[in-house]
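Example S7 (structure tokens).
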């Protein structure tokens, strides 16, 4: 954040002072306008940086939620994957027999996140591939 503030101030100072210098103004006015430009540039670039980071943060969260939803949908699409009303797929699969361990992996991935195993990574890759 400090780097962005300093960069904005520097750009504002150079732009304002350079414009005044090229316009042929007195040195005291060049430095005053440069100081005002420095403050304005720093505040504006800081605001823009916060907007940019907020947009990136929202995009990251939306993509994570979409990946989790795709994993959960893949878990529900498998045979016996539909959960009874009011239960999550993970809780209904925990009651199933141990005869089908592969049917529980996507449900565990939906609960634990996309990095909980290779089954989760494969389901996420398939969801992304199907989307595009």
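Recovered sequence:
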């Amino acid at each position: 954040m400090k780097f962005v503030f300093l960069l904005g101030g520097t750009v504002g100072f150079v732009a304002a002072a350079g414009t005044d210098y090229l316009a042929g103004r007195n040195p005291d006015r060049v430095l005053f306008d440069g100081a005002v430009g420095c403050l304005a540039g720093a505040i504006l670039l800081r605001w823009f940086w916060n907007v940019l980071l907020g947009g990136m943060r929202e995009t990251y969260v939306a993509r994570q939620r979409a990946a989790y939803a795709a994993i959960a949908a893949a878990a529900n699409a498998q045979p016996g994957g539909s959960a009874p009303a009011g239960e999550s797929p993970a809780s209904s699969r925990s009651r199933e027999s141990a005869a089908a361990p592969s049917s529980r992996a996507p449900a565990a991935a939906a609960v634990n996140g996309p990095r909980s195993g290779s089954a989760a990574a494969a389901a996420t890759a398939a969801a992304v591939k199907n989307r595009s």
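Notes on this example. The chain is about 75% helix and 0% strand.
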